[in-house]
Specification:
The chain is mostly helical. The chain has helices at about 10-20, 25-30, 40-50, 80-90, 110-120, 125-135, and strands at about 60, 80, 100-105, 105. Helices cover about 40% and strands about 5% of the residues.
Amino acid sequence: MQAALSDASRRPAAIHALGHVGAPELVDACLEWLDDAECGPLIGEMMQVLTGIDLDDAGLTVTVEDEALEHTPEHDLPRPNPLPTMQWWLRQRPRFEDGVRYLHGKTRSRAEVIEALTRGPMRRRPALLQDLQLRAPRGCCCACRPARPRPGS
């Protein structure tokens, strides 16, 4: 997958896929495209998922007028301001160990995946559900059901 980063036509899809891993070394591998209009927001999303930072709240985004004729979900992602975002990452990087998967700043665990599944953005839920299914004991299947109405609502 990392080899796809060198191919500009495959790079956005590769960054999106690598963003689900939650490995800090993959953020490092993508930093050179932080200022790219198409890849930057995906790298920002990768950083948000791994560290738990809200780029908007941290003042690490820029506002860009989008002239795109076709709207995609990626257009809704915050656009990182490259230099401050990279500086922030370099200060935070020592907190994260290579070879370890993280989710919202914590070591990825079943509990963290469930939390992200229930409270995180819809766009990440299919991969999170698949993560749970792959971790489930053999023969066990995770099923999605609509939430039951709460009493009094």
